[in-house]
Design brief:
Bound molecules: adenosine-5'-diphosphate, magnesium ion
CATH architecture of the largest domain: 2-Layer Sandwich
Oligomer: single chain
Number of strands: 17
CATH class of the largest domain: Alpha Beta
Helix content: 25-40%
Structural class: alpha+beta
Strand content: 15-25%
Length: 372
């Protein structure tokens, strides 16, 4: 335990991910809102190359893309009985302390190398409690194909999908195109299986667009998913908890583009969020129930934002996806929905840290050695 009875929490941000910049925005809000009476915050910025920076102001350094030569680099000690950050001697650093003990970590990282189970694995090895989903759940939710297989196993309503590897595409491109056209109507969606922020996602309506869409998706991943187009309103619901998760009031996204692409998410200010989403009480109830079921289907923990399509004509809700580290700025959908449900941002962070500590304590009690 850190200074007094404050908890020392490392906040990780940035990362070797297409969503590096989004993570910096989320982390700036988290650090600002965290209760300084309760926590000593150790900000740790991960560069686009994957180096971990601590000391000074790593957030400013990454925001300004100007990393001082005097920066201190750290790594996690894989020493479960005394977890913390070890300072790396990168030639120049002369630092007084060489070890920063930690009580927990808040990985405010989105996408590759942050939301996909990789950092979570490192944190497990280090013996540290951390906010959010574990290794399996993070990896599962990141891979849209595996996520949808679990949704199907749990009988959750979703559109048809099909996936294939880069190797299969290389071997039988024409056969795959024919197969997709037989199974799906145009338009359909083509996506890299493991990505976020709509990067590499295309809506295609001809064979040539389909071919280009696959090529585009293959720039980002070795696995591609094809999805049936679901026309409908885009609704989102925040889930919080561990064994008995709760769902927030639902919100609605009104993209300013044809679909909610990268531009509509981050660049164009005209996309709108409606909180709460205008819905009949029955639909809202159904949505919240499905959100919790989706959270449980991928064995999520801590937080998850579940995204849906709602076809008003058929009165049918379809699940699109779950995000295990959704956008977390103070104006992002995930915290906004909790705020609208009566849980302010700072308290939401407290809850997430509590859940992380509780889950870790339970896990620590499990046997790691077999004794006959
Ligand atoms: N099957 C689909 N039917 C209709 N719109 C879709 C479909 N899949 C994706 N979209 C649109 O594309 C956006 C991004 O797709 P999504 O699968 O959520 O990717 P990401 O994980 O990058 O957010 C969605 O918010 C929605 O606007
Ligand atoms: Mg999405």
């Amino acid at each position: 335990m850190g200074e007094g009875n404050k908890l020392t929490i490392a906040v990780l941000f940035g990362g070797r991910s297409g969503e590096h910049d989004v993570s910096l925005q989320s982390a700036a809000s988290v650090i600002e809102a965290m209760d300084k009476e309760k926590y000593n915050i150790v900000p740790v910025g991960i560069t686009e190359e994957g180096l971990w920076l601590a000391g000074g102001d790593p957030l400013q350094a990454l925001l300004q893309k100007d990393i001082p030569g005097t920066s201190t680099y750290v790594t996690l000690a894989t020493k479960p009985y005394a977890p913390g950050l070890v300072l790396l001697d990168m030639g120049s650093a002369s630092v007084a302390e060489s070890f920063i003990p930690l009580d927990a970590v808040f990985p405010v990282l989105h996408g590759t190398n942050g939301e996909d189970g990789t950092v979570q694995g490192l944190l497990e090895l280090a013996g540290l409690p951390y906010v959010g989903a574990g290794v399996l759940s993070s990896a599962t939710a990141m891979d849209k194909a595996v996520m949808k297989i679990l949704f199907r196993y749990n009988n959750l309503p979703q559109g048809d999908f099909f996936y294939f590897s880069a190797a299969r595409w290389e071997a039988e491109e024409e056969e795959l195109l024919a197969l997709i056209e037989k199974r799906f109507d145009y338009p359909c969606f083509i996506k890299p299986a493991n990505l976020g922020s709509s990067v590499g996602v295309s809506k295609v309506s001809s064979r040539e667009m389909l071919r280009r869409g696959v090529q585009e998706a293959l720039r980002y991943d070795l696995k591609v998913i094809v999805e049936e187009f679901i026309p409908g309103r885009e609704l989102e619901c925040s889930v919080l908890g561990d064994d008995n998760p709760l769902a927030s009031v639902p919100g609605e996204v009104i993209p300013c583009n044809d679909f909610y692409d990268y531009r509509a998410k981050y660049l164009d200010q005209r996309s709108r969020l409606l909180i709460p989403a205008p819905l009949e009480p029955e639909r809202e109830k159904e949505l919240k129930k499905l959100a919790v079921q989706a959270f449980e289907a991928v064995e999520c923990s801590g937080l998850g934002r579940v995204d849906f399509f709602y076809c008003e004509e058929e009165q049918r809700i379809y699940i699109n996806e779950i995000n295990t580290m959704p956008g977390f700025t103070s104006i992002s959908m995930y915290p906004k929905l909790w705020e609208a449900s009566g849980l302010p941002y700072t308290e939401l962070i407290d809850k997430l840290i509590e859940i992380a500590l509780r889950r870790h304590a339970r896990q620590t009690r499990l046997e790691t050695k077999f004794r006959a």
